[in-house]
Amino acid sequence: MHLPEHIDFRANVQSVAPHIPRSVRQATTRFLGTRQAVVDVLGNERWQALRQAGHAIRLHTLNYLDDYLTRLEEQVVAAGGIVHWARDAAEARRIVLDVMRARGVRRAVKAKSMATEEIGLNHALQENGISVLETDLGEFIIQLAGVGPSHIIVPAVHLTKEDIADLFTRKLGVSAPADPLQLCAIARTRLREEFLAADVGISGANFMVAETGTLVIVTNEGNGRMCTTLPPLHIAVVGIDKVVPDLNALNVLLKLLPRSATGQKMSAYTSFITGPRRTPQEGGPQELHLVLLDNGRTRILSDPLLRQTLLCIRCGVCLNVCPVYNHVGGHAYGFVYSGPIGAMLSTQLLGVRAAAALPFASSLCGACAEYCPVQIPIPEILLRLRRRVVEGDHSENAVAPLTLRASARVGALALRLPWLYAIGTQILAFLQKPWQREGWLTRLPPPLQRWTMVRPLPAFGANFRAWFRHRANVTK
Amino acid sequence: MNSREQILSDIRTALQRDPQSPRQPLPASARVAARVPGDASAEMQMLFNEITRLGGVAQHVPADELTRALEQLVQQQQIRRATCWNTPELAALNLPARLTQLGVQLVSPHADPRALAECDLGVTGVDWALPETGTLVLCSSADKPRAVSLLPRVHLAFISPSALRADLDSVLDEVKGERYGVFITGPSRTADIELTVTIGVHGPKALYVWSIVK
Q1: Over chain B (214 residues), what is each successive 10-residue block's mean pLDDT?
Q2: What is the domain class of B39-213 according to CATH?
Q3: Which of A58, A89, A153, A366 has the most CB atoms less than 10 A away?
Q4: Which ipTM did the prediction report?
Q5: Closest CA to A152 of A114, A208, A205
Q6: Which residues in B lie closer than 8 A to residue A282 (C-beta atoms)?
Q7: Helix ranges (DSSP H) in A103-246
Q8: Do B72 and B99 meet the contact criterion of CB atoms below 8 Å apart?
């Protein structure tokens, strides 16, 4: 995926096929149901204590991020791993390519990772003649289909089993029945060969433990284990925000993540990887590289409120509860991160120039904040980002059109000065006359037509004071 | 300034943090109470229930019926080739001899991954287990290769009651000294196609957990 230069959320929403939100809603409903069941087993009191602890741990780590990162580096190196630092996507891609070139890598297998999607790694590798295969079943399917993910946990949820069978038949040259079990078996056989033949396994990490230099990877299918066990070389690309202080802190986060994401008490496989293998007999990669990715994250740290965006552990529960996401699905958000976390993160990673529409892609209902396992104040962050879009702040200039900013200012002024408000209502009542049809404004000139092309606007009545006076006279 | 220095300096600037100022310990609110365990047999039962719920098969096997249980497994799952961890605990159960007796070909756990991938059965021990979540923790060493619980179609894990721990927290304390560990919770699974839960994707398709009763 190329880094988008401009995300037009409205246009994207218009082009979403109607079946996508339908299948997305099935997924989100399922996940919310299973999540509630495992939270109930723990009891609400224990769950809330975990959320509070999760918040405290993540915030503490961010507040000492430089310290924890250097400690992590020390420990990874002590365990025999090699650590690289990448300021941006281009540098991260170059580091990965250099490591691979030096070892003559030609075939790569990949476990699901948002960070590598964020830097557009697959594209860069393919351009340089290295074949790269996504091995998470959902990612494998959408890679074959050549589309982006519609949900963070189940990326191919918008495709039916018939679609997938058709895709397998066309792209893999096998006769594939429309049956999940058999489709799974086809992918297993096909990918097994790839795991055994690959020169490198690429992964992200859900957490990095500073105390021990351990990468923690949470998966269900076993593809993450394959990618990090079988090839002789393992490269992990991980955002600098994924560090946690120690294993006791990890305890809390590992209890929050699978429960919030898929409603599992634990995912099928949670791998703890500390450096490369010690002996050839135990198996595992001979070489481990960790690429620590900044790519705009340090910039997010500078504001204490916005900093909390980086508390995120990528469980995706905010997508599941979001009424906006449930109506549009993941593609509309135009980047790897979708839903409320996408609205917060994309806007800050890509800048408001590219993603000005995303902070507005929310009703601010606050369900996401109630469910968030690390208590990110999502609506407040979105409000702050809306302000950045419209007014600009210390980090970026405003990008809203001058007309919008000017009318917002006039509106604010009118609400402050009663006399101006009174005059304004009379002027508006007069100005609307040419477009008024029986109490409705059905077609307004630009830029107001953006409202009326979707629905009519009620005509301005007399102003409220006049109406109230009149009403008082009538009742007397 | 190289990228490492640049990133660290950007972080310190953003946080307005003096690198010389000491780091505070984690706040008290970051601690949660550990789970209180029940008695040993209740804990084992809870582990078994969870594994069963996840689609695994968990059972107590009397020591003198081990061969019969193995025979059943070999028939049910059509096991022709097997590989096994090289630990004293499993050696004491005399597993290689028992399997060979049943006509199963034994493959060295140090064999090439391709050979291990052809195995129908991988036999391991369990370092620790978590009853609350149905989780088995397996570490690795020369005698406990990682691929034995990953590549074969069926995974059979022998667990002893002494492996049970009440809470993830205490397992993590013990895992601290290890270089590699995998927490296994049920057989491999996916819901990626139409949300249909499908058991057996890339990892094992079946998980058996046996506790030997003397």
Answers
A1: 96 93 89 91 97 97 97 97 96 95 97 96 98 97 97 97 96 94 96 90 95 93
A2: alpha beta
A3: A58
A4: 0.97
A5: A114
A6: 140-142, 144-146, 180
A7: 114-118, 121-127, 137-145, 161-172, 180-197, 223-229
A8: no
**Cβ atoms B142, A281 nearer than 8 A:** yes
SS3 content of chain A, % helix, strand, coil (to 5): 55, 10, 35
d(CA A164, CA A187): 11
Tokens for A464? 């409220």
Q: How many CB atoms lie within 10 A of CB B6?
A: 14
Angle, vertex CA B33, rays to CA A378 and CA B37, nearest 5: 130
Tell me the two tokens of residue B140: 């690795």
C-alpha of A244 from chain center: 20
Q: Characterize A256-294 residue by residue with b for buried, 16 or more Cβ atoms within 10 angstroms of its Cβ, and e for exposed.
A: bbbbbbbbbbbbbbbbbbbbbbbeebbbbbebbbbbbbb
- Is A183 strand, coil or helix? helix
Q: Which residues of B touch A250 (CB under 8 A)?
A: 172
- Please tell me whether residue A459 adopts helix, strand or coil conformation: coil
φ/ψ of A323, rounded to 5, equals -65, -35
Is residue A134 within 8 A of residue A127, CB to CB? The reply is no
Where do we find the tokens 């990874």? Answer: A76
Which of A281, A286, A306, A320 best tests the B interface by mutation, with the highest count of B CBs <10 A? A281
CB contact under 8 A, A57 and B26: yes
pTM score of the predicted model: 0.92
Are B137 and B130 contacting, i.e. CB atoms less than 8 angstroms apart?
Answer: yes
* Rounded Cα distance, A266 and A464, in Å: 59
What is the C-alpha separation between A407 and A384, in angstroms, rounded?
Answer: 20
pLDDT at residue A29, as a whole number: 95
| pLDDT tens sequence across A170-190 | 999 999 999 999 999 999 999
* B113, B189, B198 member nearest A196 (Cβ): B113
Is A333 within 8 Å of A361 (Cβ atoms)? yes
Phi, psi of A273 (to 5 degrees): -120, 115
Q: What does DSSP say about strands B154-159 and B121-125: parallel, antiparallel, or unpaired?
A: parallel
Helix axes A44-63, A247-261, angle to 10 degrees: 120
The DSSP bridge partners found for residue A458 are A440
CB A279 within 8 A of CB B141: yes
Q: What is the 3-state secondary structure (H, E, C) of chain B?
A: CCHHHHHHHHHHHHHCCCCCCCCCCCCHHHCCCCCCCCCHHHHHHHHHHHHHHCCCEEEEEEHHHHHHHHHHHHHHCCCCEEEECCCHHHHHCCHHHHHHHCCCEEECCCCCHHHHHCCCEEEEECCEEECCCCEEEEECECCECHHHHCCCCEEEEEECHHHECCCHHHHHHHHCCCCEEEEECCCCEECCCCCCCEECCCCCCEEEEEEEEC
R_g of chain A computed on alpha carbons:
26
Instruction: Name the pLDDT band for A1 (thresholds 50, 70, 90).
Output: very low
Residue A329 · residue A21 · CB < 8 Å: yes
| Beta-carbon separation of B191 and A50 below 8 A | no
Q: How far is A379 from chain B (nearest CA, A)?
A: 23
Rounded CA-CA distance B2/B28 in Å is 37
- In whole angstroms, give the CA distance from residue A214 to residue B178: 10
Question: What is the Cα–Cα distance from B185 to B202, expressed in whole angstroms?
Answer: 14
- Residues of chain A numbered 260-299 and touching chain B (CB < 8 Å): 262, 264-275, 277-279, 281-284, 292, 294, 298-299
**CA A257, chain centre distance (Å):** 15
Answer for the pair A5, A334: CB distance below 8 angstroms, yes or no.
no
Say if residues A244 and A250 touch (Cβ distance below 8 Å).
Answer: yes
